[in-house]
Amino acid sequence: MKPIQLKMARAAAGLGVRELAEKAGVTANTVTRIENGADAKQSTLDALRAVLEKDVIFLEDGATTPGGPGVRVRLASRSTIDTNEGQVIQYPEFLEGDGGPGSGG
Question: How crowded is residue 101: how many other Cβ atoms within 10 Å of its Cβ?
Fold first, then answer.
């Protein structure tokens, strides 16, 4: 795992440095040092990766697209998607030009 992958994965998972560190059983200073390019024990990298892989997929250099290593957000499992239409929130900026049913808008 590259330092930039750790930063991207942590951001994609919505975790702060302290929260990731706590879940992985390392110090926040360790996470920060690794994100800034410091070497780390393989066991530390494995612990961080295990926490993050619940939310992201790590892409190795050239694995799916050119451009270097990266991360991709995991899709939520179908069982966690709420389809209760009574809970749908509509944002006005996306409704502009919406003339209602049958108006073609």
Answer: 7
The residue segments making up the domain with residue 60 are: 3-76
List the CATH number of the domain containing 20.
1.10.260.40
Residue 6 CB coordination number (10 Å): 22
**Confidence class for position 79, pLDDT limits 50, 70, 90:** very low
72 in a domain, yes or no? yes
Give whole-number Cα distances, 21 to 5, 50, 61, 63, 83, in Å: 16, 12, 25, 27, 34
CA distances for 94 relative to 67, 82, 98, angstroms? 33, 20, 9
Counting every residue written for the chain, the total comes to 105
Rg of the chain over Cα atoms, rounded to whole angstroms, equals 19
pLDDT band of residue 29 (cuts 50, 70, 90) is very high
Number of domains making up the chain: 1
